[in-house]
Amino acid sequence: MIQFRPASIHDLELLTYWDTKQHVIDCDPEGDWNWEIELNRHPDWRELLIAEEEGEPIGFVQIIDPQKEETHYWGKIDPDNRAIDIWIGETNNLNKGYGTQIMNLIIKRCFNDQKVNAILVDPLKTNTKAHRFYERLGFTFTEEREFEGDTCYIYELKRYVGVEK
Ligand SMILES: CC(C)(COP(=O)(O)OP(=O)(O)OC[C@H]1O[C@@H](n2cnc3c(N)ncnc32)[C@H](O)[C@@H]1OP(=O)(O)O)[C@@H](O)C(=O)NCCC(=O)NCCS
Fold first, then answer.
1. Domain CATH number, residue 143
2. Closest CA to 57 of 100, 17, 22
3. Residue 8 falls inside a structural domain
4. What are the pLDDT digits (tens) for 1-56?
5. 110-144 pLDDT, tens per residue?
6. Does the structure show a pLDDT above 80 at 163?
7. What's the domain count of the chain?
């Protein structure tokens, strides 16, 4: 069973090690997460989570409120959205369904907050595996966009609004 716990400075070695994995490098080649600093910071617009399977860390998830995020990476954006980053750590844990399980739980976690209208992700244009992954989860492509020199595809999952009785 997948469970989440907040990432902490005690995960520095693990996250730095996962950063050396080719599939993690490929999804964000220029990225520098400044783990030493960020793992000690707890802004109210962000969650940094370690996903564990039976107590073993298998992946990382960041959830942000893109409007409140302080570098304004997402530019001008409505309130009450969430943006997600996710990766599986070990190569031998890819393609086992863990990513899907993690994202389904993260989607629930985000929409548990009744204010949240939509969840956004921004895989690189070249990351076709991630495009398939998000589409299977119900995300829809909205636009191609340049982020800090990277060409990304933006996908969005809107809150499902059921038919009122
Ligand atoms: C994107 C990512 C999180 C997906 O995680 P994952 O655990 O590999 O995803 P899943 O296992 O749920 O699905 C991946 C593939 O495995 C297949 N699969 C799922 N469960 C499976 C199972 N039990 N047995 C065999 N294959 C399975 C899926 O059909 C899917 O196939 P496809 O890629 O050919 O379409 C992972 O590839 C990753 O960490 N990538 C690097 C980081 C990244 O790109 N993050 C997103 C950037 S925004």
1. 3.40.630.30
2. 17
3. yes
4. 999 999 999 999 999 999 999 999 999 988 899 999 999 999 999 999 999 999 99
5. 999 999 999 999 999 999 999 999 999 999 999 99
6. no
7. 1
163 in any annotated domain = no
Which two three-digit tokens encode residue 12?
């520095």
Ligand 1 first shell, C-beta below 6 A: 23-24, 27, 85-88, 94-100, 121, 123, 127, 129-130, 132-133
User: Is 164 inside any structural domain?
Assistant: no
Structure tokens at 125: 């244009």
How many residues can be counted in the chain?
165
Residues whose CB is less than 8 angstroms from the CB of residue 15 and which lie 6 or more positions away in sequence, other chains included = 7, 33, 35, 39, 60
Domain housing 24: 2-158
Tell me how far the alpha carbon of residue 56 is from its chain's centroid.
Answer: 19
69 falls within a domain: yes
Give the whole-angstrom CA distance, residue 99 versus residue 91: 12
Q: Which of 107, 129, 136, 155 to mutate to test the pocket of ligand 1 (most atoms within 8 A of CB)?
A: 129
pLDDT tens per residue, range 66-120: 999 999 999 999 999 999 999 999 999 999 999 999 999 999 999 999 999 999 9
